[in-house]
Design a protein that fits this description.
5-stranded mixed sheet; about 20% strand; binds copper (II) ion; binds heme C
Length: about 325
């Protein structure tokens, strides 16, 4: 359809618009059909008209089957179509560029993998899949880029993700679309899509610490290393190679050390205790903000497999 509309600036936009158009057309056709019959009946059977008002007989199997099966097939068709699209929308490609987003009343804070940070702005490369890992410092917000046709709630205490591939260079509006307090309407940002070479230049135009470096700094400053570095005298699990591995807990269950688990281990260490350890780790809730937690997780993820000498625990985990 050639209706005036927002730019289709991501790889999702055309497929989402097709689906939307199809549903508008389908609903329109049904509505027109229903209203046409209604108005026709009103005219034919108006008071005083000579229409035949005898009670119609016989069941008409053909018609009943048609009006049951056709809508049924249409609905199932739409369901199958939207599920395919949904799965695609929910599955970031493995080679995506990961960018962290922390929402806060009333701003968007962005952390790039190479260390650059920005507020109320998001620079992304053109034509490359980008995955956003998002959380909130306070209330529920919602990250919404209409030109990309993507929207996702950003929830405190939880990581939600979103991915897209920008297909058009330029600036696009970012909104918060979940009412989040007084200045909700001003919680705006600009998404700038840059051709790959401009993006690379933009990234290095300011030198900053990477999340891993910042995470290591916090890990030392906040005393984590005093317990967790392999050479420390205190009995605490070695975090080398922990990321995404199964962890045996003292209640006999096994969990995966994903981002959510690591966050919980830092904020509520007492809620899941690693098998064979005593719960001596203090909570870091209110002592480190969401950006700090993301940096700590980035650091833990970066310290890959344990150096052979320090692999006492992880190897016995499975
Ligand atoms: C007083 C010592 C101590 C300090 C300080 C400490 N931890 Fe811990 N940590 C432990 C112990 C003991 C465990 C295992 C028991 C448990 O699960 O609570 C643990 C568990 C963990 C786990 C789960 C490990 C696994 O194998 O599943 C993570 C992740 C973690 N800590 C990260 C941190 C971070 C990040 C910090 C700093 C912000 C920190 N710890 C500070 C002692 C400590
Ligand atoms: Cu908001």
């Amino acid at each position: 359809m050639s209706v005036v509309r927002l730019p289709q600036a991501s790889s999702f936009a055309p497929s989402i618009d097709h689906m939307f158009d199809a549903m508008v057309i389908l609903c329109g056709v049904v509505a027109i059909g229903v209203f046409a019959v209604m108005i026709g009946m009103c005219i034919v059977y108006r008071r005083g008209s000579k229409a035949d008002r005898s009670i119609p007989v016989a069941q008409q199997m053909g018609i009943e089957l048609a009006w049951t099966l056709i809508p049924f097939l249409l609905f199932v068709g739409i369901f199958a179509w939207s599920i395919r699209l949904w799965v695609h929308l929910r599955s970031p490609p493995a080679d995506s560029l990961t960018i962290y987003v922390v929402a806060k009343q009333w701003m968007w804070k962005v952390q790039h993998p190479d260390g650059r940070r920005e507020i109320d702005a998001l620079h992304v490369p053109l034509g490359k899949p980008v995955r956003l890992i998002m959380t909130s410092e306070d209330v529920v917000h919602s990250f919404y880029i209409p030109a990309f046709r993507i929207k996702q709630d950003v929830v405190p205490g939880r990581y939600t993700q979103l991915w897209f591939k920008a297909t058009q260079a330029g600036n696009f509006q970012l909104y918060c679309s979940e009412y989040c307090g007084t200045n909700h309407a001003a919680m705006l940002g600009t998404v700038s899509v840059l051709p790959a070479s401009d993006y690379a230049r933009w990234l290095v135009s300011v030198t900053a610490m990477t999340p891993e470096q910042r995470g290591r700094q916090l890990f030392v400053q906040m005393g984590c290393s005093g317990c967790h570095d392999p050479q420390s005298g205190i009995r605490a699990p070695d975090l080398h190679g922990l990321y995404n591995m199964p962890v045996h807990l003292n209640d006999g269950t096994v969990v995966q050390a994903d981002d959510a688990y690591l966050r919980e281990s830092i904020v509520f260490p007492a809620s899941k205790i690693v098998q064979g350890y005593t719960p001596i780790m203090p909570t870091y809730q209110h002592r480190v903000d969401e950006e700090g937690i993301l940096a700590l997780i980035a650091y833990i993820r970066s310290i890959g497999p344990a150096p052979p000498a320090a692999s006492q625990d992880r190897s016995s985990h499975d």
